[in-house]
Each structure stands twice: as C-alpha cells, then as structure tokens.
Amino acid sequence: MPRSAESTNERLTDTPRVVVAIPEGQTSSESLEILTVRAARIGPQSYVEQVRVRGRTQASRHVQVRAEEPGRIVSEPIPRGSRVSQGDILCEIAVDNRQSNLLEALSRREQAEFEYEASLDLQERGLQSDVVVAQLKTALESSKAAISRAELALEKTKILAPFNGIVETRTVEIGDLLNAGTICASVLDDTPMLLVGLVPEQDVSGIQVGARVTGKLLSGEYVEGTVNYLARAADAISRSYRVEIEVDPIYENLREGITVELMVATRDIQAHLIPSSALTLNDSGAIAVKTIDQNNLVSSHIIEIIGDNTSQLNPGIWVTGLNGSVNLITLGQEIVFPGQTVESNFDWDN
C-alpha cells in the first residue's frame, strides 16, 4: 500500500468523532466526522392504566318460559327472532273445561252467600246455633277460593312474555300437548347487553364499580360500557373474579356469545408517551431509554412499558420510570453511551 494512503487512514482513525443531537424534523449533517442522534423533548401526561381481560358478550336476561297448566296448543306460537313486549302471548293453551269450572265456582259462591246470610238472620232470632253459622261462613270462603283458582287456571292458558326482548327459541307447534313445566319458548333481553369476563386476583383490587371499559370485538368493532358488577368471591377453579359491564345504549344489534377483549380502566397515573424507536437495552439487559440532560450528558433510564397508543396521529408506547420533562434520544441511541457528552444545536427549552 502506498505511504500516502496509510497516512490518510491513520488520520481518519485518530480524528475524534463528534456526536451532535438534533431535534426531530431537522436535517442532519452529511459529514462523515459527525455522528448524529435525534432527540425530542417529551413531558409527562395523564394516563389511565388499564387491565386487559378476555370475555364475551351476554344478554342481561335469558329465560325459558314454561307452561304452568297442561293443555293443547290451539294457536300458532310466536316465531323465533320476533321482538316481543312484556305481556305478549307466546303460546296459547286450549281452555277446555276451565271456563266451566269458573261458572260452577261462581254458582257455588252465590248459593253459599244466600245460605250464610239466612243463617245470620236466624241467629239474630235465636233459631240458629253459632256452630252452623261458622260452618256456612267457611263454605262461603271456600267457594270464593275456588273462584280464584278457576280464574287463575283460565289466565294461565295464555303463556306471556315476562319482559321485553327477542324470542330466541320456540320448542312447540300448534297441536302439541304441553304438560306443566314444558318449555314454550325462550326470551332473550338484549337491552342492555353485557360484557362478561374473569379478572385475575392480582388485578381485581384496581377495578371499581362504575369504571369505564372499552371492549374490542373479533370483528374489530369497539364498544364502551360501565362496570356494574364485580364479584366478591373468586371462582373456585380459576381463582378469578367475575366482572360484568353494561354496554352503552348506542351500541345496538350486539349478539350474545361474541368473544371480546376488555380494557378496564383502573387508575390515573403520570407517564410518558415515547416512540418505540427510542427503546434500547442497558448493560444488564433491561429495557431502557437514553436522555440528554441540561449539561449535554447522556443518561440511561430503566423504564416499564404500561401500554401502547395505536392512534395514527400520535402512535407510541406509554412508559413509566422517567421524571418530569426529558430530552429523549429517539434515534441513534446505540451509538452513544451513558456519561458521554454530546453537542446540541438547538435550545431544549424551545
């Protein structure tokens, strides 16, 4: 190799490399003698810490409506998927002899009233014993009870919706014979819909009834709601606590049984939103970032990632472990080391 080339290499090797920190958005120097890192002044912000819970959607009520009187279905049951109001007829059973039983009970009451009133008149004249009067009064009350039973049996021939909702299943058809306890239909109450999940025991202390919750469905749709129930006793197998979230009314047409990822708000803390490019590892292998202090010295700080921000306008990750506003090295942190002095070509306070 020529002597001149060797001299040139020696001069390049011996020349100190200058590290210059420039703010985000400015053009860096193209000089080979100057190493450039980018930095940004980042301050703490309010961050609502959240607990991530796996759950599902669930109707607030879902009941199976059963027959209380035996009989044959005489009208077309309401179709599946129909929306019903409280008191709408789901199934109708044949009246059969129930109307006759009511008429018979009414006649017996009329007879019992006449006999009881006559006994009272005789009692006043001393011609009727108190025992007979008491027996006739008992017969009158028994006839009134028979009327109530007959009216109730007649009323139970119409199986009614217990609340507003949707008919989810229909298990009978016209002409079917129902026994007492046979299911006529099931009704699902979807207003409001619930988000249900199990919270690990290490996270349950940070959740309160009334906390706001964001849920992400498998379809990518987001829903919001409020915690309205948090169990006091843990599940015997998973040792987790059941949490129920009432979905806001604006979210309609949610179906039961959809998997959802819940983000439950727990506490409000101070954190820094930084770009993911600022992360590095320190000598111990811990996740850290590097900053520049007011004396232009590089410092390393171990941080903890507590969340991420997926907004396209301001993406980044939320971290704790930094105090106050910092001059964060966002690019080039691998070429500087703690304690190194760097040159700054801008006013950090601006």
Fold and architecture overview:
The chain contains 3 helices and 21 strands. Mean pLDDT is 86; it is low at 1-13. The protein has helices at 3-14, 98-124, 130-155; strands spanning 18-23, 34-42, 45-66, 71-72, 83-84, 89-92, 158-160, 165-170, 177-178, 183-200, 212-217, 222-230, 240-247, 259-274, 280-281, 287-292, 298-302, 304-309, 316-320, 326-331, 343-344. Strands 1, 2, 15, 16, 17, 20 and 21 form a 7-stranded mixed β-sheet that branches. The protein starts with a helix and ends in a 6-residue tail after the last strand. It is elongated and about 130 Å long. Among the domains are: 13-43 and 275-344, conserved putative lor/sdh protein from methanococcus maripaludis s2 fold, CATH 2.40.420; 95-156, Helix Hairpins; 190-260, Efflux pump adaptor protein, beta barrel domain (Elongation Factor Tu (Ef-tu), domain 3), CATH 2.40.30.170. It is an alpha+beta fold. 19% of the residues lie in helices and 41% in strands.
